[in-house]
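ok, trying the design again with the full structure, not the truncated one.
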């Protein structure tokens, strides 16, 4: 059973048993999606998309779970951790690619192709992730208070539509406008956005199962009734 609902201010993440595990899952999915999935274009049934789309939306699913179970401030802290992890990943990739390879190693070209992201794409990724995740958490938290905790599926899908929309509208123009044609940017943006939203909607039963289990395990129901929604904080 879930205990009596509490406001977000009385539910510090340090009091929860599984908060750190969910945070770790979020960061792992985020970094792996950017490292492993971002560099490969894929095509299924004639539709071309970035392979990372199959996994990157999981970060938004976990973001929904964080906000629903631990409140906006709990999700906000995790977004900043993910943001820092992305910066470290980009700096490490730049440094390792720049180090002169051993003369007997012939993999430098392939290594640069996969990990040598341009500063523009890195910047676009960081801005889009930061804005999209905070938009997602804000909508999720506000809808929970408005609905009095009912209709979780409306919150998960509604926050995804907004969060992924902000993410896509920022990332593709910042990363590719001027490199690709305007029509190309709009086409890829639209297809990838729709695929991400559909994929997250398909995962709604998984979200329900994880949220239900975590709420029972934590014994709390957090509502952001007295929350400071500024994104520029990692504390309560």
């Amino acid at each position: 059973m879930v205990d009596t609902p509490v406001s977000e201010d009385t539910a510090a993440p340090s009091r929860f048993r599984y908060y750190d595990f969910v945070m770790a899952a979020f960061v792992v999915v985020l970094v792996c999606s950017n490292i492993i999935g971002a560099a490969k274009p894929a095509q299924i049934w004639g539709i071309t998309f970035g392979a990372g789309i199959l996994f990157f939306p999981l970060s938004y699913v976990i973001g929904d779970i964080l906000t629903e179970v631990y409140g906006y401030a709990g999700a906000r802290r995790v977004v900043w951790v993910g943001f820092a992890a992305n910066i470290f990943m980009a700096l490490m990739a730049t440094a390792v690619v720049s180090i002169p390879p051993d003369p007997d190693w012939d993999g430098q070209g392939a290594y640069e192709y996969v990990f040598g992201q341009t500063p523009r794409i890195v910047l676009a990724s960081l801005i889009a992730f930061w804005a999209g995740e905070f938009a997602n958490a804000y909508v999720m938290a506000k809808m929970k208070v408005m609905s009095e905790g009912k209709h979780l599926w409306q919150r998960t899908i509604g926050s995804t539509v907004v969060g992924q929309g902000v993410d896509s509208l920022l990332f593709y123009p910042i990363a590719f406008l001027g490199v690709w044609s305007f029509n190309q940017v709009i086409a890829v943006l639209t297809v990838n956005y729709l695929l991400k939203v559909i994929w997250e909607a398909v995962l709604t039963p998984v979200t329900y199962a994880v949220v239900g289990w975590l709420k029972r395990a934590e014994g709390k129901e957090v509502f952001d009734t007295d929350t400071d929604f500024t994104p520029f904080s990692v504390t309560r």
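Keeping the full-length input from now on. The first strand starts at residue 6 and ends at 7.
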